[in-house]
Design a protein that fits this description.
The chain is an alpha/beta fold. The chain is 59% helix and 8% strand. The chain is built from 17 helices and five strands. It has helices at residues 3-11, 26-40, 45-48, 58-66, 94-98, 121-129, 140-153, 160-169, 174-187, 194-200, 205-217, 221-234, 239-260, 265-276, 280-289, 295-314, 319-332, and strands spanning 18-22, 49-53, 76-82, 107-112, 131-134. The chain has a five-stranded parallel β-sheet with strand order 2-3-4-1-5, with helices on both faces. Helix 5 links the parallel strand 3 (76-82) and strand 4. Helix 7 (140-153) runs parallel beside helix 9, helix 11 (205-217) packs across helix 13 (239-260) and helix 14 (265-276) crosses helix 15 (280-289). The chain is elongated and about 75 Å long. This is DNA polymerase III subunit delta. Keywords: DNA replication, DNA-directed DNA polymerase, Nucleotidyltransferase, Transferase. GO terms for molecular function: DNA-directed DNA polymerase activity.
C-alpha cells in the first residue's frame, strides 16, 4: 500500500501490530516513517518508544515488544536502517516476532533499506496481517503531481510543465526535489516560474547534459564550451558526464529507429522507456531530438563516445581538453566518416 493509505487507516483507528516500510526511494521512506510515527501518537516516548538499528538481537526486540505501554495508549518498537529482509540477507527472523506475546496495542515498525524479498516468511506475514508500505521511485507524472501539491502546501503555485522541469533537474531524486522546493519557497512569492527554477535550482548532471546537447544542436558552441568547462572543473568523475551523454544518444537511436519504422508516437515513447529504462520525459525528448540526426549519424556519435570513454579510462586522453573537440565533431560534422 501507499503511505497515504496507511496514514488514513491509522487515523481512522485501524492500527496493525506490524508495519513494514521499504522501497527504492529513501527520501519517501523517511518521509513515510516520520508521518507514521506522528500518526501513531506515542505518549511519553521516552518510555513507550524503543528504537533499534541495523541488525538487533531478535530476543531484545521481542522483550521490548512484550512490554506493556506505561501511562500511554500504545508502545512502538522501531527497527530502522536495516537490510534484514533484503534478498541478500540470509535466513529468516520472523518466528520470534510472530510468536511473541504481543499486547494488542503494541506496534513493531521496520524501516528497511531498499526493497525487501517478498518471498521471506516475515514479509508475507506482514503483507497478510499488517501494513506493507512500498516507497518506490515515482513515475514522471506522479512526481510532477507531487511537486504541484507540495508547492501548494507551501503557499506556491507551479505549473505541471515547470514541475516536470524541476523533476528532470533533480533527476527524479525525491530528496533533491524536497530540498529544491524548500529553497524555492524561501525566494519565490506566488508562482514558481521557469526563470526561478533556472536561477535558483541546482542542476543535476543529467540536466546539464541535456542543456549542452541543446546548445550544440542550436549552434551555440561558445556557450556549450563554457558550460562544459565549468562542469569538468567541478566534477571529480567526468566519466559520468560521458556516460549520460552516451545514454542520451542511445535513447535517440531507439527513437530514430522507431520513427523510421513509422511507429505511432505513443508506441515510440513506450518502446524507448522499455528499451532504455528512462522516464517518459526523457523518452519524449529523445523523440523530438532524434529528428535532427539520421540513424547512421547517431551510431557514429555512439562509436566516438565509446572510444573516448575507453581512451579516457586508459589515460590516453584527457576529457578536460579533448571532450569539446569531439562534441564539435559529432554535432557539427555528423556526416563525416570514421
Amino acid at each position: 500500500m501507499k503511505a497515504r493509505e496507511a496514514l488514513k487507516q491509522i487515523k481512522g483507528g485501524d492500527i496493525k501490530n506490524f508495519i513494514l516500510v521499504a522501497g527504492e526511494d529513501d527520501a519517501q521512506i523517511q518521509q513515510a516513517f516520520h508521518a507514521l510515527l506522528a500518526a501513531l501518537n506515542v505518549q511519553m516516548p521516552e518510555l513507550n518508544l524503543s528504537v533499534f538499528e541495523e541488525r538487533p538481537e531478535p530476543m531484545a526486540v521481542v522483550r521490548s515488544l512484550e512490554t506493556l505501554p506505561f501511562m500511554g495508549e500504545r508502545r512502538v518498537v522501531v527497527i530502522k536502517n536495516t537490510d534484514l529482509l533484503s534478498p541478500a540477507a540470509s535466513g529468516e527472523f520472523s518466528a520470534p516476532f510472530e510468536k511473541a506475546n504481543l499486547p494488542a496495542q503494541n506496534v513493531l515498525c521496520i524501516v528497511h533499506q531498499g526493497k525487501v524479498d517478498k518471498r521471506k516468511a516475515f514479509v508475507k506475514y506482514v503483507m497478510k496481517k499488517g501494513m506493507f508500505i512500498e516507497c518506490n521511485a515515482m513515475k514522471e507524472n506522479e512526481l510532477a503531481a507531487y511537486i504541484v501539491q507540495a508547492a501548494k502546501r507551501r503557499g506556491l503555485l507551479i505549473s505541471v510543465k515547470n514541475a516536470q522541469t524541476l523533476a528532470a533537474l533533480a533527476d527524479g531524486d525525491m530528496g533533491i526535489v524536497q530540498n529544491e522546493l524548500e529553497k524555492l519557497s524561501c525566494v519565490c512569492r506566488g508562482d514558481i516560474t521557469a526563470d526561478d527554477i533556472e536561477k535558483y535550482a541546482v542542476k543535476s548532471l543529467q540536466y546539464n547534459v541535456y542543456k549542452i546537447h541543446d546548445l550544440m544542436v542550436g549552434g551555440y558552441a561558445k556557450e556549450a564550451h563554457a558550460l562544459i568547462g565549468r562542469l569538468l572543473a567541478e566534477d571529480n568523475n567526468p566519466i559520468g558526464f560521458l556516460t549520460l551523454l552516451s545514454n542520451n544518444f542511445r535513447q535517440m537511436l531507439v527513437a530514430r529507429a522507431c520513427r523510421d519504422a513509422r511507429f505511432p508516437e505513443q508506441k515510440i515513447i513506450s518502446h524507448i522507456m522499455k528499451a532504455t529504462g528512462t522516464w517518459e520525459f526523457a523518452a519524449r525528448r529523445a523523440l523530438t531530438q532524434c529528428k535532427q540526426f539520421t540513424a547512421p549519424q547517431i551510431r557514429r556519435a555512439l562509436e566516438k563516445l565509446a572510444q573516448m570513454d575507453f581512451d579516457a579510462k586508459q589515460g590516453v586522453i584527457s576529457l578536460k581538453t579533448d571532450l569539446y573537440p569531439l562534441l564539435v565533431d559529432i554535432y557539427m560534422n555528423p556526416n563525416k566518416k570514421g
